[in-house]
């Protein structure tokens, strides 16, 4: 039976020498790297449990156990991410990194884009944006000292200006909630997303109604229309990209629509 998780653990166990793991390596060894018993000892689990895990038996490692395996096996960040993906578990280290906001270099990338562009984190807080986005979304992105981080959903459902700025607001609001549900996935019941969702449902009957529908659609972009108070009707084509090293961040660009 194909067992990619167990095969991955075994491959990395066999390539890690006892010396690299801080163990004595004396005597003849049939295993090129660590024995199962040695890895089990370092991970503080039973050899039987580790054997079952490598064999694909009915055992389910916790996120904490996977983190310990990644540490002992000295996995790179990419290897660690692959390990958690194979086990279908959330990496607590990845979530900790996601709380740090946008990296400094990303703000420069956004500023270099001529069209309105901004970066959203997992809560859909705007963590970086350029001047063009600030001019288009002034009620949302005009952040004052001491004000909370601008959140796209709070703007959509709490700011009166949103209903005048965004053409076809009811349809866009329904799609936005369905996109958000798809985006947050299994994180929806975890802090800080759970608090955000509860607050939106408390403060906006529209959000509460749309959230209970449990509709899910992908955030694929497409035509976006605005009625700007100074610039009048504006039409854009939205493009959304996920960042390779920070899957919790999304780069959103509003490109001017080409005339036929």
| CATH class group of the largest domain | Alpha Beta
Helix-strand pattern = HHHHHHHEEHHHHHHHEEE
Count of discrete alpha- or pi-helical segments spanning 4 or more residues = 14
Rough outline: elongated
Overall tally of domains:
2
Architecture of the largest domain, according to CATH?
A: 2-Layer Sandwich
Mean pLDDT: 86
Measured by DSSP, the beta-strand proportion falls in 5-15%
Largest sheet: 5 strands, antiparallel
Structural class: alpha+beta
Spatial order of strands in the largest sheet: 2-1-5-4-3
Beta strand count = 5
Low-confidence stretches: none
- At the fold tier of CATH, the topology name of the largest domain is Beta-Lactamase
Rg on CA atoms, Å: 24 Å
- State the distance separating the first and last CA atoms: 55 Å
Write a brief caption for the model.
Residues 33-80 form the HTH cro/C1-type domain. The chain has 14 helices and 5 strands.
Describe this entry's structure for a reader.
This protein has 260 residues and is of the alpha+beta class. It has 2 domains: 4-97, Orthogonal Bundle (434 Repressor (Amino-terminal Domain)), CATH 1.10.260; 100-256, Beta-Lactamase (2-Layer Sandwich). Helices cover 47% and strands 13% of the residues. It contains 14 helices and 5 strands. It has helices at residues 4-15, 36-43, 47-55, 63-72, 77-87, 92-98, 104-111, 131-136, 138-141, 152-158, 160-165, 169-184, 193-203, 205-212, and strands at 117-120, 126-129, 222-228, 232-242, 250-256. Strand 1 (117-120) and strand 2 (126-129) form a beta hairpin. It is elongated and about 80 Å long. The mean pLDDT is 86.
């Amino acid at each position: 039976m194909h067992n990619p998780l167990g095969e991955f653990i075994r491959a990395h166990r066999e390539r890690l020498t006892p010396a690299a793991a801080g163990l004595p390596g004396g005597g003849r060894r049939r295993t090129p790297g660590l024995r199962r018993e040695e890895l089990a000892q370092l991970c503080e689990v039973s050899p039987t449990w580790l054997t079952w895990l490598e064999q694909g038996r009915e055992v389910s490692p916790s996120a904490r156990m996977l983190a310990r395996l990644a540490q002992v096996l000295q996995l790179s960040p990419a290897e660690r991410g692959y390990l958690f993906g194979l086990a279908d578990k959330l990496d607590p280290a990845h979530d900790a990194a996601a709380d740090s906001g946008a990296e400094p270099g990303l703000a420069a990338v956004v500023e270099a884009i001529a069209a309105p562009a901004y970066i959203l984190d997992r809560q859909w807080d705007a963590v970086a944006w350029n001047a063009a986005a600030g001019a288009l979304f002034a009620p949302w992105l005009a952040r004052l000292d001491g004000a909370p981080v601008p959140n796209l959903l709070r703007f959509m459902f709490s700011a009166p200006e949103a209903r005048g700025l965004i053409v076809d607001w009811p349809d866009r609001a329904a799609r936005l909630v369905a996109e958000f549900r798809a985006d947050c996935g299994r994180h929806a019941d975890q802090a800080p997303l759970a608090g955000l969702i509860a607050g939106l449902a408390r403060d906006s009957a529209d959000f509460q109604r749309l959230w209970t529908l449990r509709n899910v659609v992908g955030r694929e972009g497409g035509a976006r229309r605005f009625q700007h108070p100074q610039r009048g009707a504006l039409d854009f084509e939205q493009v959304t990209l996920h960042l390779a090293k920070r899957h919790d961040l999304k780069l959103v660009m509003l490109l001017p629509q080409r005339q036929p």
